Amino acid sequence: MDENKEAVLESIAFVGETLGPFFLQDPVKGDAGAAFEALAALDADAAAGEWPFVDTDEAQRDLGLMKEGLAKGTMDDDLVWEYRRLFIGPAAKPAPPWGSVYTDRECVVFGESTLALRAWMREQGIQRLDDDKTPEDHIGLLLVLMAWIARNRPEVLDDFLRLHVLTWSSHFLEQLAAAAEQPFYQGLAQLAKASLEGIQSALALEVSYPRYYR
């Protein structure tokens, strides 16, 4: 593998490993406390110039929003309750983080696209990275899995992104950014969207977009 390809794969892994936990982990109860603290201490302007696949001005804006949202620390009630409002419930989520909610006619969790992803993973011999009951097409799980595939199974990365991530990620992340009422999650949604679209462009992936039912 040439050095440029290795660098692209490492950058893709960085994006997935950095952003994925923020979609999966409660700021207080989760295991991503160190990641939240690192983001809070980040020099957003300097980091924006290093962020891969995204225009510097956009990265600066999005990282700035994320840092702004952490200004009061991870114990801030607004931050904690916003995570739970967006990703946990019990109230209806304004932008559910599972792909099948948008691509399945019935707008259900564990829909056809989830089963298709599960079958693809089985065919590739890829096991889940955790043992919880969250559907495989949760955006956070997909970002973390993207990082793992980039490092361990790069030959299947294009198909993973083209068939199971990029088909719905921009649609969802746009809705999430609009629904977010706390700057951290607004910035996170925008940065994830821009990063995935930048990866699509860098890999020259042609994606067949489904009909969205939500």
From TrEMBL:
Write down the InterPro entries for this protein, in alphabetical order. DmsD-type (IPR026269), DMSO/NO3_reduct_chaperone (IPR020945), TorD-like_sf (IPR036411), TorD/DmsD_chaperones (IPR050289)
Q: Does the keyword Chaperone apply?
A: yes
What are the record keywords, sorted? Chaperone
Domain of life, per the record?
Bacteria
Taxon lineage = Bacteria, Bacillati, Actinomycetota, Coriobacteriia, Eggerthellales
Enumerate the NCBIfam families for this protein: PRK11621.1 (NF008632)
Name listed for the protein in its UniProt record: Tat proofreading chaperone DmsD
Is Chaperone one of the keywords? yes
